[in-house]
Amino acid sequence: MSMSTLPTTRTTPVVLPGTRAALWLFGTVALCLAAYYFIGVDQGATSVFGNSMYIHEFVHDARHFLGFPCH
To answer: Which domain of life is it from (predicted)?
Structure first.
């Protein structure tokens, strides 16, 4: 009976200092909230850029794809 050796791969965990991890977390949350706002909320009276519909028209298809009401 022969024994076969399986290749072993070792994974190295990513170790971040606490402040750097907090900055990554804050940046990720801020980016996600901005995307959520521009895709899901920015329209008409709640628009950051006034009464223009530029952002709304730019993300219109993404809004429908994600199930946000629009019309």
So the answer is: Bacteria
